[in-house]
């Protein structure tokens, strides 16, 4: 079955304080969509509201926050949500062996558990209203793991698994499920990742100390740190396509690295692919 969502269809977008979520919310709002943005911090909620975007506080790491926010959102939207863009997420860099159980749980609470909890609450709403579109913002790291990104890699691999399974389960309900897989995008992602790195990883006690120093230099870089970096509009373009086309794509691959590695993963033997992924990861330098 096909479904086209044009303005003023309603779309719920998580993680709208900066970057992809912020730009997408602003662009769709200008196009006439009924945008319902969410942010974790109340100060960001107030800022978006002053800019004319309907925004609610929602912390994906907290089940109570999800329940409260969704109740407020449904009251605001008269119980209707035509589309959901699962954008809210963050990165927690570090070698896998340096990740404590608490660090891994912290990463998954937002990127996986909270994201899927919210999605599971919205699926019955879409089923009752006759359909809808669910878009997950994944990553190149959702199918191609790179060094020193283990927690984030794993969270995005998990999201891809949930999305692929959900797509099969709700197809009969006229609910379309898509994945966007960006490579490097201009945002505050590195700045936020650096804050998580300093909170959770002990450099001095790690066997990866030398690589971590290169990582710190990268995370503190202002502006694009790797080639082929695109602005957040590149992701918004995919969201618009998924909304407005009768049949959205299952996967939207954004940036040259994503397209390249999606091909190489199918063609190359694992050992050669590993060497390329290590090089692409830059020993922490990229």
Descriptive report:
Helix 2 links the parallel strand 2 and strand 3. Helix 1 (19-31) crosses helix 8 and helix 4 runs parallel beside helix 5 (150-170). The protein is built from ten helices and seven strands. With 286 residues, it is α/β, with parallel strands linked by helices. It has helices spanning 19-31, 42-50, 63-76, 101-129, 150-170, 189-200, 209-219, 233-244, 256-267, 270-281, and strands at residues 10-13, 34-39, 54-57, 83-86, 132-137, 175-182, 251-254.
What structural class do helix, strand and pairing data support?
alpha/beta
Low-pLDDT runs: none
Please give the count of helices: 10
The number of domains is 1
What is the average of the pLDDT values?
Answer: 94
How do the strands line up in the largest sheet? Answer: 3-2-1-4-5-6-7
Order of helices and strands: EHEHEHEHEHEHHHEHH
> Which outline best applies?
globular
CATH architecture name:
3-Layer(aba) Sandwich
What is the CATH topology assignment? Rossmann fold
Strand content: 5-15%
Q: Mind describing the biggest β-sheet?
A: 7 strands, parallel
The CATH first-level class comes to: Alpha Beta
What is the radius of gyration? 19 Å
Tell me the total number of β-strands.
7
Distance between the termini: 42 Å
Residue share in helix: 40-55%
CATH superfamily membership:
NAD(P)-binding Rossmann-like Domain
